[in-house]
Amino acid sequence: MNPDTPKLEALAVVLEEPERLSLKRLELTPPGDADVVVDMEWSGISTGTERLLWSGRMPPFPGMGYPLVPGYESVGRVIHAGPEAGLAVGQRVFVPGALCYGEVRGLFGGASSRVVAPAARLMPVEESLGEQGVLMALAATAYHAIAGPSPHVELIVGHGVLGRLLARIAALGEGGRPVVWETNPVRHAGAEGYGYDVTTPDEDPRRDYRTICDMSGDAKILDSLVARMARGGEIVLAGFYHEPVSFTFPPAFMREARFRIAAEFQPSDLAAVRALLDSGRLSLDGLITHRVPATEADSAYRTAFGDPTCLKMILDWRSIA
User: Using CA atoms, how far apart are residues 89 and 96, in angstroms rounded to an integer?
Assistant: First the structure.
């Protein structure tokens, strides 16, 4: 190994088993010629897949098992770059996870003070984004959900961070103001100035939505959504569902409904989001609501999953030696 390579260990969030989290010093895999070493600045806590990992309700998934290092919403600085990496020391990059912890699984591996990762998986981010860079994964997920072969999204279910990002992106189109359903009154605020409206299903009489995007993760929601769609309409499943998803066939048959599953984001989605941010068309303001030092990770995870006022919790790794 090159003598200039930094110390290959990190303090990482480790899910030992469901609902048991610790911070551990882990040895890292030595970097190759196309890898970089990144000192993390911030990482976000996902209330979708990470909640399922934390609670033990994650369905069978490639790489699944405990102990594991979670996290795919991380931002840090390159402190070492291999000769074939194509990134420079000092660059701030978005890190969608890492597999560098030996016998401890990286699923998704971004909640750590330091990571080793292939440079090709990372994306440089503007200095001006700062901590908001952790939102790149969610913004790319939202973009991926509506960039497929569907008309303009007219109804979005859920006003969490993902729903807000999708609504902001959908509002950039030419199809009018999207509507967002949110049943928790605590989460109704935040749409002002972004070109969409927030209401509840009970207050919304409309039954002719052409495209509905569900971000709720509620496996039992489809029948209520089918009842609100136009003939030939589409429902995009953009949440993550830990139970079997089903629907009653006759109403969907009568409407000749279409269903589409939005999978994980692709590099092209990240690039598209970066272009929207660089142009000033997309804003990430107002989405990060809670910040704690990484040393308080256990309480941070519990707050992220249990406090409805917490849209996005981030861990601050900058003081970790």
Answer: 18
Same domain membership, residue 173 and residue 127: no
Percent of the chain with pLDDT over 90: 81
What is the CATH classification number for the domain harbouring 78? 3.90.180.10
Shared-domain flag, residues 173 and 272: no
Instruction: Tell me the one-letter amino acid at 121.
Output: R
**What pLDDT band is residue 3 in, cutting at 50, 70 and 90?**
low
Domain encompassing residue 278: 9-137+266-316
Domain presence at residue 204: yes
Q: Give the ranges where 118-248 is alpha helix by DSSP (H).
A: 136-146, 161-170, 222-226
Do the beta carbons of residue 76 and residue 130 sit within 8 Å? no
Within-domain flag for 79: yes
Say which residues have a Cβ less than 8 Å from residue 278's Cβ, sequence separation at least 6.
Answer: 126
Residues 130, 7: Cα–Cα separation, whole Å: 25
User: Does 32 share its domain with 120?
Assistant: yes
Q: Are residues 178 and 252 in the same domain?
A: yes
pLDDT of res. 233: 95
What would the pLDDT profile of 70-123 be if each residue is shown by its tens digit? Answer: 999 999 999 999 999 999 999 999 999 999 999 899 888 999 999 999 999 999
Count of domains for the chain: 2
- How far is the first Cα of the chain from the last one, in angstroms, to the nearest whole number? 22
Stated pTM of the model: 0.90
Where a domain ends, among 261, 276, 299?
261
Residue 166 in any domain: the answer is: yes
- Give CA separation, 2 vs 38, 79, 287, in Å: 16, 14, 41
DSSP reduced 3-state for 132: helix
Which CATH number do you get for residue 191?
3.40.50.720
Mark 76-102 as b/e (b = at least 16 C-beta within 10 Å): bbbebbbeebebeeebbbbbbbbbbbe
- pLDDT, tens digit, 9 for 90 and up, residues 223-271: 999 999 999 999 999 988 888 999 999 999 999 999 999 988 888 999 9
Question: Residue 174: pLDDT band by 50, 70, 90 thresholds?
Answer: confident
